[in-house]
Write a structure and sequence with these properties.
Length: 355
């Protein structure tokens, strides 16, 4: 079973090595013979034990036109709908697939280059397997294009969703009497609602005038209201695409800011400013920047008055908030009904109620 080189190597070692070593050498020789063939043709790769050039009947120096012409002739000849087997057990589908495989291998420059390399270097078995399955299993579309298209689609959906939320918030604010009255007063001061009535052909209906007034009020609310949090006006630099593009800039800016923080407040022992104090308070509360910005100004002033940037003061404030929440829950009628339901019936008790 072994080839000449493997058997000679094993016989040479058998004279001076123990029996176990001889068996190992013979096993390696047999394995080498099974894995690699002298002609470089391996079952499961390309055309298997048959050369793709022999399948198409062309030489290794054949050009693409000659290979294509040979493929068309063989494809017409061995097509399953036209070919009639001349021998028993002959399968036209297998012949046709073999011809197609040979053509797919030789028509592509990179695949043909790997195939010729396999024929010239039959001993590099694992390399041939790697390149063959890498090419076969590789995606047909560039992964980078797929990632870019996916990020762009997510960014468009993200921007549209944010804009819809912002439009809903503006529409809701136009129905709130407080903001609507203020917007109407501003519009009258700017002379947007004090226009003279039009006459003749330019006269508009009441519905058109009302729609125009609604648009004016809505635009004034947009320009004067400060919406924060999840309903704030969307910005292009907030979507995923711009965040990825600007990620290196944000990372560098954060590193510079962190180094400056260490130098100022840990090395030089400077006192915190108001901005730094609010930052530490926000981190203690585990709130995002958008959540913290949505808080009222008087709440932030209260945080500063109580010096919540200090950890011990924040712990006291946290306990107070928990106790206050417990009191609110205890005094809530809905919570009382829920506790009464748990005490009288509860989820684990079966009762019968007569009508």
């Amino acid at each position: 079973m072994c080839n000449d080189v493997g058997c000679q190597f094993a016989d040479m070692a058998s004279a001076s090595r123990p029996a176990v070593v001889v068996l190992l050498l013979r096993f390696c020789a047999v394995t080498f013979t099974l894995l690699g063939r002298v002609d470089g043709l391996v079952e499961g790769l390309y055309c298997g034990a048959v050369s793709c050039y022999d399948v198409l009947g062309v030489s290794r120096d054949a050009g693409k036109s000659e290979i294509a012409r040979a493929y068309r002739q063989l494809a017409r000849r061995f097509h399953p709908d036209r070919y009639r087997p001349t021998e028993a057990g002959e399968n036209p589908e297998e012949k046709f697939l073999l011809v197609a495989t040979a053509y797919e291998t030789l028509k592509d420059d990179e695949a043909r280059k790997d195939y010729d390399y396999m024929l010239d270097h039959p001993d590099e078995f694992y390399r041939h397997y790697y390149h063959y399955y890498k090419r076969r299993l590789a995606p047909k579309v560039d992964v980078r294009i797929v990632i870019i298209v996916t990020v762009c689609a997510i960014s468009l959906f993200q921007y549209y969703s944010w804009w819809s939320s912002y439009s809903e918030a503006i529409h809701y604010l136009t129905t709130v009497p407080k903001y609507r009255i203020q917007a109407t007063e501003i519009a009258k001061q700017q002379g947007l609602l004090n226009k003279t009535k039009e006459k003749g052909k330019n006269r508009r209906s009441k519905e058109e005038i009302k729609e125009e007034e609604e648009e004016i009020i809505k635009s004034i609310i947009k320009n004067n209201i400060d919406i924060k949090g999840g309903y704030q006006k969307p910005q292009l630099y907030d979507i995923l695409l711009f965040q990825i593009v600007l990620a290196p800039y944000y990372i560098c800016r954060y590193i510079m800011w962190y180094c400056r923080w260490i130098y100022r407040f840990h090395i030089k022992q400077e006192e915190y400013g108001e901005e730094e104090k609010l930052y530490i308070i926000r981190k203690n509360m585990k709130m995002s920047q958008g959540q913290f910005d949505s808080l009222e100004d008087h709440q932030k002033e209260m945080f500063l008055e109580r010096k919540l940037w200090l950890r011990e003061n924040f712990e006291v404030y946290k306990l107070e908030q928990e106790e206050e929440l417990k009191k609110k829950v205890a005094s809530d009628p809905r919570w009382k009904r829920y506790r009464r339901w748990l005490r009288n019936e509860g989820p684990g008790r079966l009762t019968f109620i007569d009508d």
